[in-house]
Amino acid sequence: MDEIDFKWMPHHEGAVPPAGQGKRISTYTVALEAWRRGLNVQFYSVFDDENSLKVRYSIGNENRVHHFSLSMGDKVTQEAFDVCANKELTKQYLSKAGVPVPEGRMFNENSDEEEIINFAKTMRFPVVLKPTDGNAGKGVFANIQSIDELRGIIPYVRGVLGFKEIIVENYIPGDEFRICVIEDRLLGAMNRRPASILGDGKHSVKQLIDQINQIRKMNPHLTSRLIKKDREVITMLERKGYNMNSIPADGERVFLREKSNLSAGGDAIDVTDELTQNVKNIAINAGKAIPGLFHYGVDMIVDKENDTGVILEVNARPGIGGHLFPMEGKPRDFAKEIIDYYFPETKNDVRSWLFFDFDTVLEPIKNRSAASVQLTPPPNGNIHGKKYIISGKVQVVGYRAWIKRQALLMNLHGYAENLDDGTVLVVVAGTDKEVVEDFKSICFKGPEKAVVENVEQSDWNKPVKIGFDIIQKDYKLTPFDLQRAEKEKERIVQEKEKIEREKDRLNKKYQRVTTSKSWKYTYPLRRMIELLKK
Amino acid sequence: MKDKQTVWIPHIMEAVPVEARKNQISMYTIALEGWRRGLKLKFYNIKEDNKFHIRYSLSNGDHIHYFNGSSGDMVTQEAFEICDSKSLTNDYLLNAGVPIPLGKKFDEELSNKEIVEASKQISFPLVVKPTNGKAGRGVIANIRTELELETSVQYVREKLGYKEILVQQYVTGEEVRVYVLNGRVLGAANRRPANVLGTGKHSIKELVRLKNDFRKQIPHLHFRPIQIDREVKLMLTELGYTLDTVPEKGQIIYLRKISNVSRGGDPIDITEQLTQKQKQTAIDATNAIPGLIHCGVDMILDENRGEAVVLELNTRPGIGSHLFPLEGKARDIPKEIIDFYFPETKQRDTSDSNIYFDFGSIQNGLKGSSTSEVEVIPCSPRRLFAKMYKITGNVEGKEYYMWLRTHALKSRISGSIRKLEEGLFELVIAGETKEAVDEFQDIWQNKRRFHISVKQERVWNHPVKLGFEWQDGYNSMSIRELEILLKEKEQETKQSLKEKQQTKHRINKMRESHSWKITYPLRYFTDGFRKIKKIR
Q: How many Cβ atoms from other residues are within 10 Å of residue A156's Cβ?
């Protein structure tokens, strides 16, 4: 498991810096796509009612500028956004347009519990209870089997969670798909599967979880969303008669949780090819039902048997990370689709193989120093890359700093890194193929103190970060490292003082002895002995 | 240092973040003044000569001005070009009747010999300098003989490669930098070589350390300590001192001959000492160059006659010496510059302002290659209300800080936390109103898991940096500096260890000696007697 192949799109390999991973993946990948086409990209901050920071961005060329929020651009109207933010309103629009939705009713804060229960009594169970304006599945209770169960849940959702407006509707079994659409075109669909492992008849549950987590770490969308071996997982295993050391049979899928949230270790799986024309039409009609909604995602329960489905929710700015980086199935580049849609004239432009450092770009916005940050455009043209491994006396001689100066002088991008075996790894990339190839002789030369023995070269086809970095291993010093250094200093000072004290004590003793009368009186004796020695 | 009163500008003094203290004082202080007046501030990343440089702009929505260091776009391109060439500058100054040292310009066709011959007509001592050298590079002063002149000309032309040179009369006297804006002298500063003032108690070594501690608090001198190097030691030897000498109270000891601030020299404001005539010379010099609306004039003062000769004009003078002199009055040049560029904001008095912006993250972004432009978040129009609390509790380390930072930013609170001593921390909380600050106390204090209790609280009058940061003694210290300090301590420890072992060795040797063994009974008795004496 040491080397895991990057199984997503090659232009994303290693091209998602930490700040773009996880929740900012839509923002980053869409901005990256635009930036790579030479469009101007600017990030800026807005603050919501609670004064929480939201990062927004704009993309533009000489003629026009579009503003974006996550995967949503300004072609989607405020009205459409507001409709989607309210589940009841969405349902009304969909029903009116004849798009299938689950049957049920909304209750506002004026309705008491009895009213809701009385309505539920008229429904077929199981039912679902959800808030009208909840986010990301918060407060959603699916598969409620009885009135009694419902009675227990209502006060919790309305009281503890504080959602006053709720919906009670039919629970529809089936697979829940997330489908993305731009106008008349269905881009793709994914399905979320609860955290699970696939047995191979050899490895234990624990080992398999570790393996899956290794792959998840490689996935920019899931880097920090690993499968935790917590109580819930252990209970679930026990229920099936397993423990961490059991070895599941080859081909056996063992589920570790009930819920399918990606943050709980769930997997996104591309299921685009499973959609029938009927199901696709429902998804497309859902968008048409809401004025001003030109691109969006829908959550849909698909009933395969009857070749139909119901829409649970419409998202004006769906996360696209699961589509870009699915754990199974084909990755779909929705970032490209979105930019194609907003800037169709750039559809066939050469896309740079570089990426930008989202971390340093966002930092001044995040610490609230900057209102906006504009990106440096990438150089025009195709990028060529080479990887050089330099051996000899090349570490601790200022080799990397020297290489960096040369690279910047020649407008090359890339990085230099000390490897554990004493060699230095240099990756350079630029638009001029010759310069990139000639850099080998620069590597050979090195700074004065270096003695280069050999330079090994190979092609580099992965994306490269704009600019030139010296990779420091764990060398990002923070005030806390300084604290540690300060402690170390104190320790040394204390040690020194201790030694000084002891020294003083010994010195005094020495003084006392040499000035003592007996020492003085015995001087002739010592002198004699010394003479005798000679 | 305390004898002559220094007048600081408090709203600038403590409002320059460490990251801006290295060669960026002019940019930061001017940008800060504009920002505090409500102007829109942007920083840019510009690649020039294969290096990245930071430039900035200020805008009031109506018009925008671009700046580079202390220079703004009201200085014309023509003025820049003239000032870049020393000989062109001299031509203009001469034409306008501004006194300059007598001299001649020699272009590249001439041989060294011809230059030496022609130069002899100017009276010695002489100065040789390249026409387009930067920051004193290639300037050879006080040339007294023909032979010296010959080698100097050869050195500058052949070794340094400056073919076009000036040979001028060497004028002695005090050199001064005068800042002129729009026909007014705003400040004049000169420099005194690195020095310490005796207390009658401290050794020179200790005095240097004390002075460096003091320099560290002054933005402009933060990264310019007095370094005890060979030159300093040599100078002390010449004076008959060592590092351990304790100078008398009030005695000034000069540690170097050259006065550069970067070598530990003191900037001194002497604006009030200039004569009317000298001031007029600086103004005339600036006016002599078309399109030079502000600049720094280098002149040599003739004290006896109250006159001056002009050496050079700087289009982008550093204003740090005027802002942070070690003696005399600080001159608020950023205020004058912004008044000039944005006169409509003149009434906006910023002397009451206690906010400044973080430069570290902005600079960090611009230094990388990804960011081309950063717009600074607008300045709050009101003075912040700030309080300081001394607290104890479980707050050391990342956990409390990260937690607090998130809440502070969310509540529009700025401030910092810093360790004062073991178990005692200083928390600064600043917000737009007193209510906001008091309200926030419920958040930072009520967290049960950190066991916080307040030992002391008072209103905080120092400027506050926007955002929330962990500060400590070494925050203002570069990692390099800390490493040096660590090494120094390690060295001292090693030295002590060595000395200790030597002593131990000596004692052991003594103990092992025969006489020691032989005289044991004697010692036994004397010790016995001593004890008896004590008992009596």
A: 13
